[in-house]
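Summary for the steering committee. The consortium agreed at its last meeting that each partner would contribute one worked example illustrating the joint modelling workflow. Our contribution is presented below. We chose a case with several input lines so that the handling of multiple components could be demonstrated. No manual editing was applied between input and output; the record is shown as generated.
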Amino acid sequence: MSTLKTLETVREAVRLRPEEVAQARKRGEKVVGYFCLYTPEEIIDALGLIPLRICRGGNEQWMEVGGQYTSTKNCAYIREMVGMFIDSKDKDPLLANSDIIALTTADLEMGRVAEVIHYYCKIDPAVLGVPRSLEDPSGRDYFRGAVKDFAADLERRSGRKLEPRRLQESVELYRAIRRCLLELYEFQAAERPPISWREVFEVTEAGFYLDRRRYLDLLRKLLEEVRVQAPLAKRDERARVLLCGSIIAPGDTRLLDIIEEMGGRVVADDLCTSRRFYQELEVKEPTLEGIAEGYMDRLPSAHLVCLRPFDEDRRFVNMVNLARNYRAEGMIYHTLRFCDAFSFKTQPIRRFVREKLGSFPFLNIHTEYSSSDVEAVRTRVESFLNIMTSASEERQELAEATRR
Amino acid sequence: MLKDVTMEVRDGLFYFPKELKGPFLERGGLTFWDGREVSAEEIWQFINEEAPQLFPYFFTSDLSATYRLPYHTELLSSLKSYYLTLTRRQRTEAMKREGWALALVNGGPPMDLYYGARAIPMRPGPMADLIMNYAAEKKKLQDHAAILEGFYDDGASRTAADVCRLMRTHSGIRRRVVPVDILAPYTAMRCSDMSYLVEWQRADRPDLPKTLVDFPWDHDPAKPYTGKFVAQNLRDAVKRIDQLTGRQTTDEDLKRAIRWMNRVRKAGRKLLELWWSAPQAPTCSKLVFDWGHNAHDALCDPVAMAQVFEETYEELRERVEHGIKSVEVSEHAARFWVCGSCVAPSCFAVDARGGALLARDDRWSSMLMDVDEEGDPYENITRSLQSSPYEQIAEKRALWVVEESRKARANGILFAYHWGCNYQGAISRVMCDVAKDAGVPSMNLEQDDLGRATSPEQSMNRVSAFVEMLGGVPPQA
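What follows is the complete predicted structure of the assembly.
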């Protein structure tokens, strides 16, 4: 049980949310279930629709089912998503309550998910096309067109019209939410953290489901409580881990549990279900063009392509900055099986990080949603955290010796 | 008209029998893009003297090999195809000396853009062949297999264990085995990994220019921004190639390439349709499959390729008119159409087990993508790309395959994809289920047998079962 009362309130709200959504639908409201962080939630909210980020992870059964409808050589997360639709379209409370499914093609395999669920589940998703590069001028033009199309599609499906005033309110709402999350994130990395990274991760996930206005209210209360608690917080001397890589979706707790169990503490991440969800996303103008610009300018996903040298690849530079700014003592790079966008980058990232940070401990955990490699992962993480701790102690001794 | 002639075997290698020389010489030589000519005598000499020494693994008489010559020569013009295939290395080197750039591209799009910009397009499969031309020169079959495995292992260790086998071969680029000048594939056409492969080469080949032609998943021609986007990507790719070659590609350069590639595609289509129309298989499946490949990338020279196809058509027409059947294909062959990309079961093995391969959907789709010859060439190529039947959503693609395979009198559809292939693997079941719902038997096959010794038999067992299910009977011994 957390010492933060508001956190308990958040948890309770999440628990009650599926029923709340079901009741809202009975009153005629419509729900958009979406997956990817390139989905412009502001548009969904401005149309008076309920956005739910329904991505899930860690479900071995769904992954097995999905592999039968795609192939066993698709990314574990993709297989799981397909399995979720095939197995639980009408049973899972979030999925069953989604009137419109929205996907993007930032991850090309999600385009295939759209095709597979169209055939087997008779679902016609609203798809937002994402070009391979959002930094090239032509790609940016494409995305502007795609966002406009996406908005028009949602209007058609919902029977509602996007109003400028509502769009402005939504943009301001989400801006406020992101600012709160960014501030909260800073507290978790402190030497005496009043809130843990895991708890912030949980709060971020809560924002996938809760009514956004209530969520903002809860975030503000949580921040107040955290500020009060901060001077009283205890020192946390566990090994400080930077966690990067493939999606760790709600429900996929295995690696996070193991890190904590083995004596580590995540202090920074670039996960799309955590910091990257709200990092560097600034919508300056409350228009469709402004929303498109904001989403294009955010830190790019690993699914997109960068052909510039690594020093100019924002994703690579971001990882090094996170390690420095949050004083990480080592990095765990998590990749899901057949998640090629991330796997292909493992070696280059390792080299880049070491080039910039010296002998920075780096561990790649390559896994899927299966119980069979839990102990193997646990052994690797345990050894790695020991290495991190030893390396950190050596650096401290060296620093002291230098001072003497 | 040539009656089927058995290859001569000497020291474990196939040679074309001397009795073919006279009729072959009568057919004349080849003319190339740059106006250069090669005589039939030169072609004969290369194919019979030089090539078996350079590529013993291709001339092997081991009938279990998949990448080899057929046991019977059925069409004299096939010698010219083999000549073009086996001189890729010499010809690309000569073209590079004349200012062309060797480009890694991907399968699917019209190659017109590259030829127009004086880039030699090399798809992943032919690039793997080219890498082996360099790395396995003069090596026998077993050594060829071992060298190829070495590339796979190196590629996997540098990228990821899960990566598709074809992507792994490009450790040959990393290791500078082949003199590639630019990486310039399309993205998202049939393969989600090509763009990550190009990105990855930043690590080991930062010197190599890289560009991507983005062909997005949503390329709906009804959305004006998609066409504009693709056309701009084409222009940017040409600019990038021009920076390398030091030339300025004009619209007329592109139109010349378009005219020749249209001619290649048309000739290839006519060939396949003629083959399909015959009551019995007029040639072995190997030739049919080669036509599909060659119509797509023109083996580095559209002028020569068009000529070869047009000759082949005349020879094939004679065979079909005289009712000549290939001795390598059963009278009761189960005819099937292959879907997927980058991989297919061994043509020889399929024929030997009572099957016959008619076409591959990716190749046939490319052969249908003619490009308008008047007007803005970038917009014309864009429209051709957007018309690709293969790049439709899986259901529509499957229904298109059913329709096309019926025209070819297919008994069934086989969907094959590589181990590690995300993009095709994801829809393999959808494609097969749509076919079954339309009344066409189908099978889904994951393959791992590009060079790996253990898996071809597993794949062929499955294919044999499928052939049997379709009523195919092996040919008489």
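Chain A touches chain B through 53 residues (CB under 8 Å). Strands of chain A lie at 31-34, 50-53, 100-104, 126-128, 239-245, 264-269, 330-336, 362-367.
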